[in-house]
Design a protein that fits this description.
heterodimer; A: alpha+beta; Ubiquitin-like (UB roll); DNA polymerase, domain 1; B: alpha+beta; Aldehyde Oxidoreductase, domain 3; Aldehyde Oxidoreductase, domain 4; 3 domains; five-stranded mixed sheet; 25% strand; globular
């Protein structure tokens, strides 16, 4: 069974048709060709596919594509404004807060969600916010540094 | 008097510039195999064995063939190729017999993922279960089940590996030095201890994924998430009897490897499916569960270590039996058994040493390379062993190490002379001991009062590793100039996250004296166009790749001078290449910009000379020898990187819950080529090591089925598991043949983390744990047992 859906991703409106079994991740990656959202496990364990669905951080592998009908989605492709990288992206680069890069899009989405809810988070809140995003490369410290600097400036921060 | 000509404008070695791959990765535009497709591509799925050891009696694919969209089905009976890095022991699909739960037995290519999955379910396979063996020690028994009854007939790398007929031993590595019996006779005390390590998952966030296409004229095109393009090509060409230049292997961005993608994995199977499907490309993406229980892991290890010591702590003799749990196939395992044995006594002077390192087949998921290549496992025993001995002798763990550590003038257990250019484990140890105030050990807090029931402890551990690589390992690089005098660097080591390309950019920019942002190291490896490199493993890429890049830059400089010399009417030795110019050294105004030369120089009248500047560089390690088969003596090491960790831990004695307060790490890496890349490698490696220390390890049921093939049941460290503080120190004793004096440090950060944590637990509680991982549960049970013993 397939369904016609309409969805707005990163302010772009799409009309498309998806099988009922398609996840939001499949919709984004396979239908809309927005492949910045990564699949690390497909069953909600690793956080690599974190995206914002109507302002809520979700694992795109645990939401059906049809559930996104009429919704607004934000993905890593919506983080920069044209060529202008966002504050988080710049800070991740500055702190070398990525290695293989496969968890990075989800990590940035989780950080964006945190900063939307808590503009000046303490370190424990940063750690809590990214605890659902697995990274096997970095040891997380540079990621926490990068997020802290966006929240508190180069000299500020809880640490 | 010499005049300093060199400006300091383009000094990048030691700098901290942005990663070359950073923008692609933070914007989501980095392309991995996961999102790649070729027109006409089919989806491949694998069917795997539910049994650890069984005979395949019947395979029926008739129902599967009827599934709409199925284009090809392959089974073991239809494929007769055998794969192996060092030991040809692994069929592409299980044939006649399966040897582990998870072994691939059939595969399907279909128009959709769903159809492929459905068809796999409908393939009927009848098995006759066979008795199985799961423990390497039990597998050594005379009457043990034989995992490979014909192992002595298998093709293998002769003279290096020694499979033993009528056993489960894929390789027996011997180290023999001095007279071990005499050494024990000299000892005041002799200790014997046992240690174990479970098999461990690499768990890259990108699972294994590959696209393969059988092209007309017996050619193959492979796009894959792998670490070593030329090794995939080589093993593939050998397995299928193809000329090497008929096999093209491409590797785009890779989402983590850690050794798990070092060899050849899904590529041959995808190719066989493509061939069976009339040449349509086939993509196989491992699911997370398959990543855990089909693709290989780190080997388990059992260690029995016997040590003779004087009362002052000096080691007089060491005898070790390492029993590696290779699983069903040898893969890299035999080489791990060889390489780790050369570090099997730790970075210590042991004049009387006897090591038997046995790589033993069992009916479990097979092992492969894993960051550290056996050293985390070996040093778990060696470094815990020393603390136990120190405790029994009433010595300080720091003193016993400093008393025995390798220093200039001593020799290693493989007979290699330690020189002043070798690196300094003693200084690494001193550095971390100071950093955690190891001499001020108290079970109370140094940072304020502790809650009731909590205690603190500190542990230290040394580590060492050299690259495990063939003596003839070589590497090459091409540096080619573009119109604007920027350069592209072509090299075939893969940067799957380590940051090596970013470090190489520092080297190339400095050598050519150009701005670093004019250096692009090409991230898309392709065996059809890139120059040869052996493998991206063993922490040898920056060293060998760095040297190859320097050589290529020298070639560029020679070519630049050759052209400029004609125009400037000056001999080579009077020319200087600096700040993107070639000029006559006595009259710097007399010069040409690189831009005027790099594609050829044109005189005012139109005559042109030169041509595109393309530098070629290479490197091969100097003076390596095979190890003597009977004694293990020889020089196998490109370089030795030594290091140490200091750990401070807080333990809740009521619950066994632990918090890592601080980890301080020091490595003698010769020279810091890129400050941030070194620091972040260490941070990541330390946390990965902490995973091995505290919670990682596969568990199997009594029938050999893996119990924890998911991130829910197999925990890797999250941000919450990071220590409160991690510190990194770099000692710089130059490696004279390293690029700018540098050594590798990719794997080393995770080695000896479990040892230091185990020693810290011992220090804090007196509880002496010998089996990894050091889970809270295990610590709690040990504390409880200790309390009971005290009360009794």
């Amino acid at each position: 069974m397939e369904y016609d859906i309409e969805v707005t991703v990163n302010d772009v409106h799409y009309k498309t048709r998806v099988p009922a079994s398609f996840t939001l991740m499949q919709l984004l990656r396979d239908k809309l060709h927005l492949t910045g959202t990564k699949e690390g496990c497909g069953i909600g364990e690793c956080g690599a596919c974190s995206v914002m669905l109507d302002g809520q951080l979700v694992n795109a592998c645990l939401v059906l594509g049809v559930e996104a009908n009429g919704s607004a989605v934000r993905t890593i492709e919506g983080e920069a404004k044209g060529e202008q990288l966002s504050d988080l992206q710049q800070s991740f680069i500055k702190h070398h807060a990525l290695q293989c890069g496969f968890c990075t899009p989800g990590m940035i989405l989780s950080a964006r969600d945190l900063l939307g809810r808590v503009p000046a988070p303490r370190d424990e809140q940063i750690v809590e916010a990214i605890a659902g995003n697995l990274c096997r490369c970095t040891g997380y410290e540079t990621i926490v540094d990068a997020i802290r600097e966006v929240a508190h400036g180069p000299k500020g921060g809880a640490k | 008097m010499t005049v300093p000509f060199h400006s300091d404008k383009h000094q990048y070695v030691g700098g901290n510039g942005e990663r070359l791959d950073a923008v692609d990765k933070v914007t989501g535009s980095a392309v991995y195999v996961h999102e790649m497709a070729i027109p006409g591509m089919l989806h491949g799925r694998m069917k795997v064995s539910p049994h650890a050891h069984a005979r395949i009696k019947r395979v029926d694919t008739s129902k599967a063939e009827k599934v709409e969209g199925v284009r090809a089905i392959v089974t073991g009976a239809t494929l007769d190729m055998t794969l192996g890095l060092y030991m040809c022991d692994r069929p592409i699909l299980g044939r006649d017999v399966v040897r582990y739960q998870g072994e691939q037995v059939a595969a399907v290519a279909a128009e959709t993922e769903f159809a492929a999955r459905r068809a796999c379910e409908l393939i009927e396979i009848e098995y006759e279960p066979l008795p199985a063996v799961f423990d390497p020690e039990e597998a050594l028994a005379d009457n043990a089940v034989r995992v490979h009854p014909d192992l002595h007939t298998y093709n293998h790398m002769r003279g290096v590996f020694f499979p033993q007929a009528n056993t489960n031993i894929a390789h027996h590595q011997k180290i023999r030095k001095g007279d071990v019996e005499a050494g024990f006779a000299q000892a005041d005390r002799v200790f014997e201890h046992r240690f174990t390590n479970p098999p461990v998952a690499h768990a890259p966030i990108e699972t294994h994924v590959t696209i393969a296409q059988a092209l007309p004229g017996r050619r193959a095109h492979i796009i894959t998430s792998a670490q070593s393009p030329f090794t995939v090509r080589n093993l593939f060409a050998i397995a299928f009897g193809m000329p090497h230049n008929a096999v093209r292997v491409q590797i785009p961005y890779v989402g983590g490897g850690f050794g798990g993608k070092a060899g050849i994995h899904l590529e041959p199977l995808a190719y066989c499916l493509s061939r069976a499907a009339g040449g349509r490309p086939v993509k196989i993406t491992a699911s997370r569960e398959e990543e855990f229980n089909v693709l290989p892991s780190r080997q388990g290890l059992k260690t029995i270590i016997k040590t003779g010591v004087k009362n002052d702590g000096r080691i007089t003799a060491l005898q070790v039996k390492y029993m590696w749990d290779a699983g069903a196939y040898a893969d890299y395992g035999v080489n791990i058994g060889r390489a780790a044995a050369t570090s099997g006594a730790g970075p210590y002077v042991v004049d009387n040493c006897w090591i038997d390192s046995l790589v033993v087949y069992t009916n479990k998921l097979y092992g492969t390379a894993f960051r550290g290549f056996g050293h985390l496992e070996v040093l778990w025993g060696v470094e815990r062993n020393l603390d136990r001995i120190a405790h029994a002798l009433g010595l300080d763990p720091y003193e016993i190490r400093q008393k025995n550590v390798l220093r200039a003038g001593t020799t290693t257990i493989t007979g290699e002379k330690v020189t002043p250019n070798h690196g300094r484990p003693d200084i690494c140890l001193e550095t971390v001991a100071k950093d955690i105030a190891f001499d001020n050990r108290t079970r109370t807090s140094t940072t304020g009062p502790l809650p009731k029931g909590k205690v603190r402890g500190k542990g230290i551990a040394l580590l060492q590793k050299s690259p495990a690589m063939p003596v003839f390992t070589s590497c090459s690089a091409i540096v080619k100039f573009n119109e604007d005098a920027s350069v592209n660097v072509l090299i075939s080591g893969v940067d799957y996250g380590q940051g090596t390309y970013t470090s190489l950019a520092n080297i190339v920019a400095q050598e050519l004296s150009i701005p670093r942002d004019k250096v692009q190291v090409v991230f898309d490896c392709d065996t059809a166009t890139q120059p040869y490199d052996w493998q991206t493993v063993a922490s040898r890429f920056q060293v060998m790749g760095g040297n190859a890049c320097i050589d290529a830059c020298h070639d560029c400089i020679a070519q630049l001078k050759q052209v400029a010399g004609q125009v400037l009417r000056a001999p080579d030795h009077e020319l200087v290449c600096e700040d993107e110019r070639v000029y006559v050294r006595h009259t710097p105004d007399q010069g040409l910009s690189y831009r005027e030369i790099v594609l050829g120089y044109t005189y005012p009248n139109g005559n042109s000379i030169g041509g595109p500047i393309i530098g070629r560089g290479k490197y091969i390690a100097q003076g390596l020898t095979h190890l003597d088969p009977q004694t293990g003596q020889g020089k196998a090491a490109l370089d030795w990187t030594y290091g140490a960790h200091g750990v401070e831990i807080e333990i809740d004695t009521e619950t066994g819950e632990m918090e890592i307060i601080k980890i301080s790490s020091a490595f003698d890496i010769g020279k810091v080529i890129h400050e941030g890349m070194c620091r972040t490698q260490v941070q990541g490696g330390v946390l990965q090591g902490l995973g091995s220390a505290l919670f990682e390890g596969f568990r199997f049921d009594e029938r050999g089925r893996m119990l924890n093939p998911s991130f829910v049941d197999y925990k890797i460290p999250t941000a919450k598991d990071a220590p409160r503080e991690m510190r990194q120190h770099f000692v710089e004793t130059p490696q004279l043949d390293g690029p700018f004096g540098a050594r590798g440090v990719g794997e080393h950060p995770m080695i000896s983390i479990p040892s230091a944590v185990g020693n810290a637990i011992f220090d804090a509680t007196g509880v002496d744990i010998t089996d990894l991982p050091l889970t809270s549960e295990r610590v709690y049970m040990a504390l409880k047992a200790a309390r009971k013993a005290r009360e009794a």
